[in-house]
Write a structure and sequence with these properties.
It is elongated and about 65 Å long. By secondary structure, the chain is an alpha/beta fold. The chain has two domains: 3-260, Spore Coat Polysaccharide Biosynthesis Protein SpsA, Chain A; 264-414, Hexapeptide repeat proteins (UDP N-Acetylglucosamine Acyltransferase, domain 1, 3 Solenoid), CATH 2.160.10.10. It contains ten helices and 31 strands.
Length: 415
């Protein structure tokens, strides 16, 4: 088969409601993958990147959210991008590699030559066509996206060693206790269908071990199967680590931005990164204005077409305004995400904050934080339907849904 005729599919792992607890209160009523970054659902950014892959046949979203939670989005994005997007619900968590294997028949129905695997909670420029080209040159089973980070932060991720010339993956360890390398795994991969054989091999080996133990001890079997179910396979510990150094896996290093979206603070940082990317990739999505007929816009700003922003407001940099938002006269917004149906009244100020759906910010009120995205309370978060009354200040705080604040609070979690 000619390369030009080869089909490619993409799989995006979206997790499920038992994960992402650090994302609360923003994930109470909205699945984390559908939370908007730079005006688009979190999962929209990797999906859009997949659209750039040559000969893309289908995109699969795999997770254990209820199908109804993704049905509307999947239908909408399929029509928008003119590529089939399907949500596949796991009956239970199968692990990052086990979930791929569980749906292998559906993934392989177009007989793809290559399979991309992406994690939804990754923010980067997703250089997928370049990865595919490099992967074909390497001739291995898989290629993983990697990036260099500071030695201090490397231990939070999967650290690896690669051959500087051939780019072969020589060693891989997940979140090591001692420093191994400043090169880390970005959670973006491209594989040949041989990945399914590798995953099957892990399950078979685990079953064989369990059968051996059954002869000597039923209690041992219980321990093995409880800790490592036959169909639960982790991509990092069970596939990447054992295959490192066997000329099967290779690396592709990105020099662009990369972050992992685990907390609301990181979602605000990643929204800013995507807004900056829009300058070259999607400039039509960025707002503009000079304060005459429309609001003054500074830096990278997204405003949904249905939002109403007063001409005397000053917006930006790094601001995302969602559908049906009303922004009053004299409002100042800096580095914030304003979600659907929020009302911001005259002369309010919002800085380094996320304002939840259907919330109301009163006149001359102030919602802000210090902007340290990595700190526990580096941003202020207002949950859904929070009311901040006139002249109140909410500083470095988290407010759960359906609360009314008529006094100022600082460094608090309002339950």
């Amino acid at each position: 088969m000619e390369i030009s005729e080869e089909k490619v599919v993409a799989v995006i792992m979206v997790g499920g409601p038992t994960k992402g607890t650090r994302f609360r209160p923003l994930s109470f009523n909205t699945p984390k993958p559908l939370f908007p970054l730079a005006g688009q659902a979190m999962v929209h950014h990797p999906i859009s990147a997949c659209k750039r892959i040559p000969n893309l046949a289908q995109i699969f979203l795999i997770g254990f959210y209820e199908e109804r939670e993704f049905a509307l989005y999947v239908s909408s994005i399929s029509n928008e991008l003119k590529v089939p997007v399907r949500y596949l619900k796991e009956d239970k968590p199968h692990g990052s590699a086990g979930g791929l294997y569980y749906f292998r028949n559906m993934i392989m129905e177009d007989c793809p030559s290559h399979i991309f695997l992406l994690n939804c909670d990754v923010c980067c420029n997703f250089p997928l066509p370049d990865m595919l080209e490099a992967h074909r040159r390497y001739g291995g089973m898989g290629t993983m996206l990697v990036i260099k980070v500071s030695a201090e932060s490397a231990s939070q991720f999967g650290e690896l060693v690669a051959d500087p010339i051939t780019k072969e993956l020589l060693h891989y360890t997940e979140k090591p206790e001692t420093f191994v390398s400043d090169l880390i795994n970005c959670g973006v991969y491209v594989f040949t269908p041989d990945i399914f054989t590798a995953i099957e091999g892990v399950s078979t080996h685990r079953e064989d071990r369990a059968n051996l133990r059954r002869v000597s001890s039923f209690e041992s079997l219980q321990s093995v199967t409880r800790t490592f179910p036959m169909d639960f396979v982790r991509l990092d510990q069970d596939i990447l680590s054992p295959l490192a150094g066997k000329k099967q896996l290779y690396t592709y290093e990105t020099m662009d931005f990369w972050e992992q979206i685990k907390t609301p603070g990181m979602s605000l940082k990643c929204s800013a990164l995507y807004l900056a990317q829009f300058r070259s990739a999607s400039p039509h999505l960025l707002a503009s204005g000079d304060g005459t007929k429309s609001a003054t816009v500074i830096g990278d700003v997204y405003v949904h077409p249905s939002a109403k922003v007063h001409p005397t407001a000053k917006i930006g940099p790094n601001v995302s305004i969602s559908a049906n938002v009303r922004v009053g006269a004299g409002v100042r917004l800096i580095s914030c995400i304003i979600l659907d149906d929020v009302e911001i009244k005259e002369n309010a100020v919002i800085i380094h904050s996320i304002v939840g759906w259907k919330s109301s910010i009163g006149k001359w009120s102030r919602v802000q934080a210090d902007g340290d995205y990595n700190a526990k309370l580096g941003i202020t978060i207002l949950g859904e339907a929070v009311i901040v009354e006139d002249e109140a200040a909410v500083i470095n705080s988290i407010v759960l849904p359906n609360k009314t604040l008529n006094i100022s609070v600082q460094d608090e979690i309002i339950l």
